[in-house]
Each structure stands twice: as structure tokens, then as C-alpha cells.
Amino acid sequence: MNPTLSQLAAERCRASAIPLAPDELAAALVVLPGWQVDGQTLAKRFRFQTYREAIAFVNAVAWMAERADHHPEMDLGFAVVTVRYTTHSAATITRNDLICAARVESLLDA
Question: What is the DSSP code (8-state) at residue 19?
């Protein structure tokens, strides 16, 4: 059985990271509902019922980012969080960004 995207191991970020081909990125977006390509970033806006839920989500994403050593940009509003992934060292979207986005999605599946 093939592992899901969120089960794959993220790799250490490096300048030689390979950018995704357009067809690879399009295929990945099918299994990452709501995520969109915004320039060189992969982004999604998450809405919550309360500020407390939004903060808890930000903290959970931050914990996962530390473990993966791959950190997203996050914007926090009252009950809205926008998460943006890019591989800064490669200046584009890579497989690591997809893996980490899938892990963020898995937080809400629990």
C-alpha cells in the first residue's frame, strides 16, 4: 500500500531541492482541497469558530513545522488563519511543501 502524502518524510531543505513540475503540482492539489498556488507559494485560508481555536491551530502547525524543520508563513486574524508554504532555499514549491500541507490538513481530520 502506498503511503499518503502526509505520511511521507519531509526532507531537509536545501537550495538543490527540485521544483515540482506543473502536472505534479496539479495532481497534488486534487488531494489537498482548498489549497491554491499563489505565485511561488502553496496557500490555504482556514476558518474557525473562535479565536482560541485559531490560536490552537497555529500552535499545532508551529509544532509540526519545528519537527519537520520546514516552516510556513502564517497570518492570524480573529478566527482565520492563512498558511503559506514555499521552499525558500529553492524559491519555489517543492515536494516538502506538499507533504507539510497534507500534514496541516491531517490536523483537522482528527
Answer: B
pTM of the entire structure? 0.85
Domain membership of residue 37 (yes or no) is yes
Quick check: 98 and 5 in contact, CB under 8 A? yes
Position of cell 525558500?
88
For strand 73-76 and strand 36-38, is the pairing parallel, antiparallel, or unpaired? unpaired
For the chain, the domain total comes to 1
**Rounded-to-integer distance, Cα 82 and Cα 43, Å:** 7
96 lies in some domain: yes
Amino acid present at 37: V
Find the CATH number of the domain harbouring 70: 3.30.1360.20
For residue range 48-99, what is the model confidence (pLDDT) as tens digits? 999 999 999 999 999 999 998 899 999 999 999 999 999 988 888 998 899 9
Tell me whether residue 3 is in a domain.
no
Length of the chain: 110
